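User: My instructor asked us to take a sequence, write out its structure as tokens, and then describe one feature of it. I'm not sure where to start. Here is the sequence I was given:
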Amino acid sequence: MVCELHNLMGSCEIHNLRPETLQLPMPDHRRHRGAHPQDKQLFKSDQLPALRQAVSDLSWLLSHRYAVNSSLKLVGDRYNLTERQRLAIARAACSDDQQEYRRRTECPLEQIRGKQIVIDGFNIIITIEAALSGGVVVLCRDGCIRDLSSVHGSYRNVSETENAIRLIGEFLESENPESVLWLLDQPVSNSGRLAQRLRDLAELRNWPWAVEVVMNPDRTIQDSQLITITSDSIVLDGVSQWVNLGRDLIQSFQPDIWLIDLQS
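Assistant: Let's start with the prediction itself. The structure tokens for your sequence are:
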């Protein structure tokens, strides 16, 4: 398999892997961020061995600096994957260097006690919304749990939004950080409304939160040098300390979530 991949790929150079930006057909407009109609077939148990092997193959290509888009097409075509399955393996895969760096910089949850932390707001909220609403969430090669939602520049509240924020807040409160800075993407529509919901809940619960809507949260997070809560692949590769709160929180829901393990 390795020789075949190498011969087919030639000598392309890798681009930044941002599986969060992969385009999918327009999502449906239900009031939940749950499963899509075909997910039961696409991610049933007999599909998982091929998906795990696809993650392994894609990770090998990324580790050898092959281009992301052509690598994903090669692997997806080899295993005859649908667009949604390709999104899942793209979010689950990472290069060996990325995996090693993320493991080295990950901190245990209890390390946020008494510390200032920064949160990649849309990233964590959407993942928890998806888990609560019965959507597929994926245990990835780097140990993060990621959802398969696609915001495409527009965020809308769903039925699980309030509960997702409350659960995140209570999980954080149990570890008593000194302060929490939430960052939301200004270009995403409705980011201002979500920011106000976060502020209102923080005031109600007396949580030490600040919420900012900024043009480039990724860069702001990386420049802050604070302990970061995110599972975004680009952000993770540019921070010196991060906490895998999404995984810890979602795993506390079991067995009430639809978690598929695509670690290869």
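For the description part of your assignment, you could build on this observation: The longest strand covers residues 179-185. Try explaining in your own words what that tells you about the chain.
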